[in-house]
Amino acid sequence: MGKTKYKPVEDVNSQVVDDVEIAEEVEEQRNDGEVEEEEEQKQEEAPKSFEELGLDSRLIRALTKKGIEKPTLIQQSAIPYILEGKDVVARAKTGSGKTLAYLLPLLQKLFSADSGSKKKLAPSAFILVPSRELCHQVYSEVSSLIELCRVQLKAVQLTSSMSASDMRNALAGLPEILVSTPACIPKCFAAGVLEPTAVSESLAILVLDEADLLLSYGYEDNLRSVTSIIPRRCQCLLMSATTSSDVEKLKKLILHNPIVLTLTEENDKDEAVPSNVQQFWISCSAQDKLLHILALLKLEVVQKKILIFINTIDMGFRLKLFLEKFGIKSAILNGELPQNSRLHILEQFNAGLFDYLIATDDNSQTKKQKEEAKGEENKENNRNNKRSKPKLDAEFGVVRGIDFKKVHTVINFDMPQSVTGYIHRIGRTGRAYSSGSSVSLVSPDEMEGFEDIKSFLASDKNKDSDIITPFPLLTENAVESLRYRAEDVAKSVTKIAVRESRAQDLRNEIINSEKLKAHFEANPRDLDLLRHDKPLSKTAPAPHLKDIPEYLVDPKTQEASKMVKLARAAMGNTRRSGGGGGRNNKNKKRSRKGSDPLKTFNPNGSKRGHGGGVGQKKDGRDSSDGSTKKQKTV
Ligand SMILES: Nc1ncnc2c1ncn2[C@@H]1O[C@H](COP(=O)(O)OP(=O)(O)OP(=O)(O)O)[C@@H](O)[C@H]1O
Asked: Is 335 near ligand 1, meaning CB less than 6 Å away?
């Protein structure tokens, strides 16, 4: 296996990708036993620009307009191979820019294929993704590139929930690119909306994005029926954040003699978690989780925007109601909500309309539940099946692959149920060249799973070094000062209140969803129709709970909070977050490194701890005993 070692791309980037190796191997050809071939590797290759990768000037201009100046490592590596027409398997950690790694060369190929050739009866490119949210995200990305490039290409998105006539209408304009979930393709064949023979004739590029998830979402049969009609000449690309037997299976099923690109860091196991994400944890009992999250948010010791993960929908509502009493507005995202609402919530959060999003990830749905949900969905017109319980969407997935913009902190209110779940959650921050942090609240019941995560992430060489370190900015006193209020309010958020709010929210969102459908059709860019962070409770929060009096907060936490605010200001993040994109990125990134209190705060007095000097108890809170512990610096 050949290896190419890349020098750091730039100052900022070197923090992220130092010591990155790209291992490339040429795989055996599917079924025909071709001898494994070694690729000639170029040594110590210098980072390349988009121009040097051979990208069309229209695409480069479009990227510039989006504020994207230089390719990420996976883009540098994959784009030339894809342009050459090779099948590629690309595995790179979350947030590393895999979407553009395949979209840019795919569009370029279609630019040239477009000129002069007669219109085909089926799309030339299929991009298959595991969830509707991802479908929408990729579709938006490809559409905006097409628009910015001013080329005559058309992309459409299809999902299984669409009616045959909607699908027919969408395909009527003979789009070149179809973005969809795998389940939708056989549905199109069955409804006569797409002809398998036309697909066989037209299909030139097939992309399986988030390949590690496609099979776990139960799409195996769907994918088999698609592969049976893929022409041999069709170029296939497989993108994934983690390796798994599922990826191997898909590779064998679909790809021909692929180039396998694997972005690994020195520490092989750490590779899936972006190294620009600082990971922290706090030990607390299950009952005290509300108290701790209140302390984190109310005392402002974590940076906004914040994505909070919980494992059940009810817990999400409980948390929202609880925070609401303290004047903290948040929105909820889960698989029970109608699709249009979900997309709208994501768009509003990305646009910075609110700072706290409470999400139930697909992790909380077991494979069996997903299959059941899918089965439910397939039982069309089953009128007898009048379940009062709302259905979970089998194609729901907020975590995997979704590009939450400018999320600075991920909080695991509940711990995820697997290491992969953890990696994907954490990967919602620190995307591309940005940095972020995560805080996991770990109860004794969750400790075993947490240890598994820690040992998975620990490097083989350095087993004792903790990748997830105790959270340094919250003192025990600060937490305790809020206990009385938190417990009092927690008691008032009863099961009945949670149930009623959940039902009410669903009713509202169903009504919203209809409005949103029309709205999305008429104004795909306008986000301001509805707000999703409205209070659930009919009573306004008590004024004394909205503001925490200064005397309640101990001086150390006050200092930490001040520093978080200063860091926020230094990062140009004082307004409502969102909007704007990468203005003056270079300067901001430089100041970011020095100003993040999680990297510099020392509760023992000195402001510049430089990654060390944090006195902590084993339970992740400050012990104030002056002992020091080295923190991970990034
Ligand atoms: N070259 C680049 N420079 C700066 N930002 C980039 C670059 N390429 C992509 N991005 C941005 O980085 C973010 C993450 O990209 P993307 O969603 O493609 O990551 P990913 O590798 O697919 O992650 P995941 O595995 O979680 O799906 C996006 O907001 C994207 O616009």
From this structure: no
**Contact 433 CB / ligand 1 (< 6 Å):** yes
Q: Give the CA radius of gyration of the chain.
A: 25
Quick one: the chain helix, strand, coil %, rounded to 5?
A: 40, 10, 45
409 lies in a domain?
Answer: yes
Residues 396 and 478 in one domain: yes
Q: What is the CATH number of the domain that holds 73?
A: 3.40.50.300
**Cβ of 401 less than 6 Å from ligand 1:** yes
75 ligand 1 Cβ < 6 A: yes
Tell whether 377 is covered by a domain: no
Q: For the chain, how many structural domains are there in total?
A: 2
Could you tell me if residue 383 is inside a domain? no
Residues 328 and 208 in one domain: no
Give the structural domain span for 287.
277-365+391-571
Cβ–ligand 1 distance for 298 under 6 Å, the answer no
From the number of C-beta atoms within 10 Å of its C-beta (0-12, 13-18, 19+), residue 145 rates as: buried
Confidence (pLDDT) at 525: 52
Instruction: Identify the weakest region by mean pLDDT among 17-26, 63-72, 170-179, 568-577.
Output: 17-26
Mean pLDDT, the chain, integer:
74
Q: Which of 183-187, 454-458, 535-539 has the lowest mean pLDDT?
A: 535-539
Helices (H) and strands (E) in the chain, counts: 24, 16
Look at residues 571, 599, 621 and tell me which one is the last residue of a structural domain.
571
Instruction: Tell me, in angstroms, the distance from the centre of ligand 1 to residue 279's CA.
Output: 20
ipTM of the complex: 0.98
Nearest CA to ligand 1 atom 20: 95
Residue whose Cα lies nearest atom 3 of ligand 1: it is 68
Asked whether residue 233 falls in the same domain as residue 353, the answer is: no
Based on the fold, state whether residues 320 and 441 are members of the same structural domain. Answer: yes
| Distance in angstroms (rounded) separating the CA atoms of residues 548 and 483 | 12
Is residue 406 domain-resident? yes
- The CB of 133 under 6 Å from ligand 1? The reply is no
- CA 358 – CA 320 distance, rounded (Å): 8
Average pLDDT over residues 40-50: 61
Rounded CA separation 587/584 (Å): 6
Number of residues written out for the chain: 634
Degrees to nearest 5, angle at CA 456 with 289 and 403: 65
Last residue of a domain, one of 262, 286, 310: 262
**CA 56 – ligand 1 centroid, Å:** 20
Tell whether pTM > 0.80.
Answer: no
Which residue has its alpha carbon closest to ligand 1 atom 29?
A: 403
Q: Do 244 and 287 fall within a single domain?
A: no
